[in-house]
Amino acid sequence: MKKFLAVIALLTSLCSHAQFGTNVFGRDPIINLENFDKQRVHWGYFLGFNSYGFKFDYINPQEVDIIEKGTTGFNVGLVGNLRIFEYVDLRFEPGLYYTQRNLTFPGFDNAFDAERQVKSTYIHFPLLLKFSSKRTGNVRPYLVGGLSRTINLSSNYNILDDNMQGRFRMKRWTNNYELGFGIDLYFEYFKFSPSIRGVFGLDDELIRDNDPNSPYTGNIQGMTTRAVLINFTFH
User: Fold this and answer.
1) Max Cα separation, the chain?
2) In the chain, which ranges are continuous DSSP H helix?
3) Contact, 64 vs 56, CB < 8 A?
4) Burial zone of 118 (CB within 10 Å; 0-12 exposed, 13-18 middle, 19+ buried)
5) Among 11, 17, 100, 233, which residue is least crowded by beta carbons within 10 Å?
């Protein structure tokens, strides 16, 4: 999380300093793209990073927890923006998300049996409401929230082998809710919007092993997604 916040702060600072000499973000700024947000519909694209994890609920909470280590993934996608009111927009942001989570299960004597690499390729379909503040010069903060549906192309949902054969299986489709914030920065030829958003899974995503007493999944009551998304959007 600290790395993600540092990236946003650095890029925002660089953009501000790069344009400060033309009085874009200082006092009495030159107003860029003055009528941009008055468009009924506009489009864009985003690039970014993600950190995906799981929230585990256990049948017997007294047992040792599963240890999870996340990695930094990559996002890319499109943005469609529909203006509803002056300060409210409806956004559709389909994207492709690559990520990996490394899980270590308790009760094993060797790392080969205990560890599972969960590599995921998601196609993510969020439908979001964007609530913007009043624009000040070339800066406009906003809040965003909504629902999303995700398909996991690497879920192994149709494979009969389970963790006993080294296959960690998840359901293919999941539903989520999302909350976040960002800032619109208006430049001469484009609008740049760094944002951070949390994703909270609503569905149990785990496919249990064939053995109900499996040391991998036997104690798991529920497993849902938790993720932090950092997107840099260009309109």
Assistant:
1) 69
2) 2-20, 111-114
3) no
4) buried
5) 17
pLDDT digits 0-9 by tens, 130-171: 999 999 989 999 999 999 999 999 999 999 999 999 899 999
Structure tokens at 48: 């970014």
CA terminus-to-terminus distance, the chain:
26
Strands 41-58 and 88-92: unpaired
Domain that holds residue 23: 2-234
The CATH number given to whatever domain includes residue 165 is 2.40.160.20
C-alpha to C-alpha distance for 203 and 210, rounded to whole angstroms: 20
In this structure, how many other beta carbons lie within 10 angstroms of the beta carbon of residue 234?
13
Contact 47, 231 (CB under 8 A): yes
Spatial separation of the C-alpha atoms in residues 5 and 199, rounded to whole Å:
16
